[in-house]
Amino acid sequence: MPRPKLLVIDRFEEKMAIIEYGRQTFTLPRSLLPKAAKEGDVIKLAVVLDPQATAQRKKEAKSIANEVFED
């Protein structure tokens, strides 16, 4: 059985954390991680949709578009 891929903090570069996920790497703002996080720590991420914030952004974008393209 293949080993599950883990999210591991590889290192910190200034205000960014370099995260390893299998053979891939990506960055996250260090401020999103717990203050105690250190190199080598395994982290868990939860991605949650925010329908209210999405609806508000759409409303704001429509309002701006109406102002710009108003006849």
Distance between the termini: 63 Å
Radius of gyration: 19 Å
Strand order of the largest sheet: 3-2-1-4
Strand-pairing-aware structural class: alpha+beta
Order of helices and strands: EEEEH
Question: What count of helical segments does DSSP give?
Answer: 1
Largest sheet: 4 strands, antiparallel
Would you tell me the overall average pLDDT? 93
The level of helicity is 25-40%
Q: Count the strands? A: 4
> How many structural domains are formed by the residues?
1
Q: Bin the strand percentage.
A: 25-35%
Morphology: elongated
Provide the low-confidence segments as ranges. Answer: none
Please name the defining characteristics of this protein.
71 residues, alpha+beta, four-stranded antiparallel β-sheet, elongated
Structure explained in plain terms:
The chain has 71 residues and is of the alpha+beta class. The chain has one domain. The protein has one helix and four strands; from the N terminus they run ββββα. The protein has a four-stranded antiparallel beta sheet with strand order 3-2-1-4, with no helix packed on it. β2 and β3 form a beta hairpin. The radius of gyration is 19 Å and the shape is elongated.
